[in-house]
Each structure stands twice: as structure tokens, then as C-alpha cells.
Amino acid sequence: MEDGCNMKKIALFIMSALLLVGCGGSDSGGGKTPIPVDVTGEWELTDITVKSALVGDQTADVYLKFQAGEFTIYQKIGEGRPKVFSGTYSLTENLLSGKYSDGKFWGASYDVEIEGSVMRLTTHGGKETDTYRKSSIPSDWK
Amino acid sequence: MLCVALSSCDKQSEDKLYHNPETSALTKVRNYGDDYLKSDVLVKFASVPDEQTLNSLSDRGVRSIRPLFNTMSGKEELMAKHGLDRWYVAELEEDAVFDDAVAYLCFSEAVSTVEYNAVSRLSEIETKFYPVEQEEAEAQTKAETPLPFNDKLLSMQWHYYNGGNPLFSRNVSANADINVKDVWETLGMGGDPDIIVAVVDEGVKYNHPDLKDNMWTNPGEIPGNYLDDDGNGYVDDYYGYNFVDGGSITWDKEGDTGHGTHCAGTIAAVNNNNIGVAGVAGGTGKSDGCRIMSCQIFSGEGAATSKTQAMAIKYAADMGASVISCSFGTTTPLASDDAYLNGGGSLMYDVIKYFEDPDRNCNPVTGGGIAVFTTGNESHNFAHYPGAMADIISVSAFGPDMLPTYYTNYGPGCNIAAPGGEMGQVSSTKSLVLSTVPKEVESNGHDGGLGSYDYGYMQGTSMACPHVSGVVALALSYAKKLGKKFTVQEFKNLVLSSTNDIDTKISTTEKKDYVDVPIKGTGYHYPASNPLKMAPFYHQVGTGAIDAWQLMMHIEGINTLVAKVGATSWLDLTEFFGTSSVSLTYLSVDVPEETVKSLGLQNIKASNARVYPAVPEEGYAYVQFGRLYLNPTKVGSGKITIRAIGGGDHLGGGSNPPGGMEMSQTISIISREVKSENGGWL
Questions:
Q1: Which residues in chain B touch residue A107, judged by CB atoms under 8 angstroms apart?
Q2: Minimal CA separation from A3 to chain B, in Å
Q3: Engineered SS bond to B473: which of A119, B225, B290, B531, CB 3.0-4.6 Å?
Q4: Contact between residue B306 and residue B347 where contact means Cβ atoms under 8 Å apart
Q5: pTM of the predicted model, to two decimals?
Q6: A78: nearest CB among B560, B674, B680
Q7: Of B562, B576, B573, nearest in space to B632 by CA
Q8: Which pLDDT tens digit goes with each residue over B328-346?
């Protein structure tokens, strides 16, 4: 008798859990699969969390290029000469992750949102959001 | 002790002169050694003296008093700023009683300082060069690694690029050099004709085939006409000036050694001209090398004096030099910078400050000049003055094994090290520094050097010094090209921060032994002590080995460092203080309040600070193991300034014992949630 009662409780718990999952999905995406985004192209770092947080004369100039699973970063953070990094990336269900050509992984994976010519990369599970806009990388950076 | 007889002084005056240590006129005397001229003394007046004052002092063996320096048009204000208009030379009668004349001058209230005209001589270890024979030179045309210039002997100049060839040392250390190859090759930077380096030394052989195209020439002077065409007070100063004999530069008198020509070649022998050697700032073969000005203070057997040294440096300043390369100094141990200034160095210091003054506008980068001195060759555990002054760069020497040499001075007052070569690392002379020499002077060659090739080997801190001078000239050239500006002190900071660590090698090397090399015709052998214990040199040869590439990167500017939010993390300071950052002595870490706010810095405490020094031990950030530790809690940016000692473990200056130069770097930091291991943005 007690076993049957327990079985009912377990069944109810599973149903509740499924409902909660459903509700959670509804909260974030209306129960739909995220609209696939395409990061292909050239992007320039614009008004982002970090950049907004910069004080004084601190600068951060960053260009990204994504093309057929390969990326290139052109960056100049503050003074000094620009640095170039490259490697491979993958985009799965709008989660962008990658690996540099020296074998090091990116410092984070990013949830990607794209609206028109604006792309926002938010650290997965974090709060930092970097915003980029479609832009051609200046030839003197390449 | 000064022995004085003033028969005509009254008793009260005598008491004032001799017996009261507070008011004694003899406290005005400045002298630190026994080697000085008795034919004249150098006098500094409290204010510019009038004719009457000068006339009144021409007595008691004082024949005449005249200004020490020529006044060039437009330089009056600058001279007054540094007191150079108050320095005079008092010439004494042949039969003058020296001490009597000095006391007489001291007794004048118009006189503030009487400085003896001290004599400096070249160190024994450097007096003769080892010639390169022509056949040897022509045979040495192939390097193991392709080199950027076609100078035939460049592959033998391990001091510029050392690929680890045992030809140069049984214990050769690859990269025991000044790391200039990539500056020439990658940056295409070899110098700038507007950057002038004055070689304050023996005369430079200005018609040397590997120097003549990089010699500075005075556009207002016609050489050899025995006239002062430009009216600067110097006759025939076309390539510089001979302050010993007056007139044109000489290099081939009996007693000359080729020292000045050797130093000049290291700084700016013409590069990529298919002959001879390369120079650090000798250009790229497109008439783009820095220029050499010869300020001759040694001539034959004639020694340099305080007076000629000061006049030479003043001349270099007035004629537009940006760097003075000074491979000389006093050998007297002195307790502090004050002791040097009060002991006979005040004239030298006044004139160096004049040289450094940014109002000279000698270049668009720093405005003022950079003075580079040797530490000395006596194996002393202290640097010689004036290089030992806390705010002047002084250079110790290392060999092709990247270790300090047996002769180099080390310890307090040494700021940085450069290749000086070292006899005994191999059985040949190839472990020494190779550069230009005048073939006319006697050498250590089998034929006495006469008639042989115009290149030779020498060793000494005198050879290390021009390496740093050349790198400084190269960096000024690069900064000029980039349109960068620095103060003189900022520039010195960058030089001392652009080094490779030597201490790591010293700590693992207890001693080094040498090949026994007989010194030709003397019965003596190199080196003096064998084996040489290395432990005393640990942490004692300045901030490390000069690195030209690092300095150029400092000139370009250093990327902002990225710290990760949410954890105590460390940032490597190598880019800011060189690979020697691990062993530097740090003084402070200054974190401005706005940086604390922007980064949300948390207070942190260094672990094992008792065992491993941390500065500070607790605060918003600290330095330990050459790393900057901090704990940001939010995304932001800021700046942190770190002060360190450029050479040794204590600061010099004032009445402190001789010590290092204070240097600082301001570091820009961004804190992010993202920090990749290789510095990539994503």
C-alpha cells in the first residue's frame, strides 16, 4: 500500500518536473528553438560592457572575422602594436565557442544575439556583454 | 691634507680659515684623489663675478682667472640655470705654491667652490687592441643564421647577435647579446642622422672607411683653415674638438690606443656597406645611421682632466648631441653622491645636468640628452663616479656566456649590463668585442698593429658602455619616427626596464673557469683570478642585460593587461620591467582611488611574504615574484604605478650610500570576465 503511494508521488513529481521544464522553456524562448544566428562576416567592437566601463584614456579596439569555422581577431588594447589571433570556432544553438591556433581555448563561450547589423556576445553564464557592429576591417589592420 | 701658508693673513682670518670647521674657508675645496694638475684649479663663484673681483684674485700665485666655458649665442640662460656661467679656471704661476694659491682663492667670499683639476686615465686592461687580420676578416663572411646586413665581420660580433656558437666561448650562451637583430630586420630601424652621439674619449678616426659616412660634421666650420668659422670659440671643430691639444681631432699620437675609435664603431659603424663591422645605430645602408661626434679628452700620453671632460660635455650639448658615451670615471671609492659632489664632482654634475636639460631641444623625443657612463674595470664591488650617481646610467660588462666578467665593477651604483667581452673564454680573442680601430696605433698584434687591418678586439666596461649608448640612440631614432615624446627620466626608466635577467644564470653558476691566455710580451696571463666565483655578482649588475628589442617595444607602448574578475589573479610584469622583473627590488605599488572603484578591487594579502618579499605585503595590489597580484570584482579599467630600483637593493642619491636609480612604470589594466591564456580578446 505504501509502495503504491510512493509510486504515485514519484509520478506526480515527474509530471511536475516536466511542467516546470515546459514553463522554463516558455519563459526564455516561448517554447521555441532559438532562431539560428549567423556570425559570418567582419565585426567591430562598439559600445560594450567593458568599453562602457573604461575610464580615462583607456582604449580597446577589436575587430573579429568569422568565416567558415575559422576566426581572426585583430586587437589593440591600449598602447602598443596590434595583435592578431586566429583559430577555429563552432556555433551550436547560438552558443559560440572556439580555440586559438596555439591550442588554447577561448576565455569563455558566448551566447550570441544578432539584431540587424548588431551582434551581442554575452559570456555564457556570466554578465559581460560585448557588442559589435558589422564593419569592414580596415586594411591597415590586416 | 692641504698644506697652506698665508703669511699676510691676520690672526682672526687664520682662525677662520683653519680652525673653525663650520666656517673654515677650506671647506670650499673639492678634491677626491691624489691625481690632479697643479697648473690650474677650477673655481665656482657664488654669483657671476665682475672684473674687479677677478682682478683682485690674481695674486698669490694665481696668474689669471677666466671663464671655463665659452658662451654660445642663445645659451646664456641655460648656462645660468645650471651655474655654468659661474665656473672659472684659475691658472697658476709656474712657481706658485699650489696650496697657498688654493687657500687664497678659498678665502674670497665671492668664491663658493674650489675644485681640483683631477686627472682620469684609461684602464690598463684596455690599452691595446687585438687586431683582426685581413685574411681572417675575409674568411669570416658566413654566419650560421642569416644576418640583416652584409658587413663582412658582422658574424663575429656576437655582442649584437649571439646564436650560441662555441667559437666565442666554451660556455657560450645563446642570446648573450643586445638583441638588436630584430630591430634592424623587423622594424627596419638602424638609426637617424639627426640623433648625434658624442664619444667623449680618445679622438675618433673620422676618416675610417667604416665610420666616415656616419661622422657628425659641423656645418658652420671649414676644416683645416685654422679659423673659428662659426664663432663658437673652437677652431677647426669639424668632426668635434680636441680638448687636450686644441684644434682638430687626432687618434694616432704615441700613446693613443684606438679606444675612442673602437667605442665609436660599436655605436655607429656604417651598416650594410659590405665592409668591416656593424654598429648598433649605424643605419641600414641608406645613409640613415646616427652620427658620431668626437669629443676628444685623451690624446697620446695626455690624460683627461675634470676641466677637459666638462668642456667636452658642454660642447656636445651646445652642438646638439643627444647622447654622451663616457667610458671613463674616477677610481676613488666614495661614500655617497654627496661625497662625490663635495669631493670634486660638482663641476661634472653641473655640466651633465646642462646636457640633460630638455630646453636644449637636441631631439624631438626627450629634448634633453642621455648620459651613459661605465662602472669601471677594477673588479670593485661598487661603481665608479660619476656613473655611480643615482640618476646617471652606468654600465657593467658581461661576456658571451652572459655572465659578469672578471674585471667589471659590480654592486652599488651599477644600473645595467652590456657586452664588454672577456679574455679567456676561448683561446682566441673572439670572446672580446669587435669594432673599428685606427690601424696606425700600436696593438697587441704580431707586428705591433701598424699596417694591419682597421678592425680589432677590445674588452672592458668601456666596450659595454657604447653598446648602451648605441641602443639609446637607436631608441631615440625610433621614438622620433613614431612621434613619441618622453621626459629624460621616463626614457631612462624605459632603458633600465628593457633588460634580460642575468641573476638566474648567476645563481646556478657557482664559478667559471678560463682558458689560460698569455698576455703578449708581459709574462702575465688572463684572467687575474681563475676560477672566478659568481656568487658576489648576484643581484649586483643592475637590472640585467640591455635588450634593444624590448626597448623599442617600450617606445611603441605596452598593451593593456587584462585581469579576470572574481578571483585573485596575477599579471606578468616582464613586458614592463624586462625578464629581470623577477629579481628587481620593488619600492611601492600605487593604486589610485578611481582604479580601486572602477575595478572593484578587494584588499588582498601576500602569502609567504616573510620568505618571498612582497611589496606591499597587504593592499589593493602587491608585487611578488615579478608579478602584480590583484582581485577585481567588476568589469572596469584603471592604472597602477609600480616603483622599483634600477640596480641593486637600495636607492642612491644624497647622503645615501651609492645605490640604484628609482624607476617607475604605470600599468594600464582592464578587468573582464574573460581572460584567455594567450591574451586573445575572446
A1: 564, 672, 674-677, 680, 682
A2: 48
A3: B290
A4: yes
A5: 0.88
A6: B560
A7: B562
A8: 888 888 889 998 888 888 9
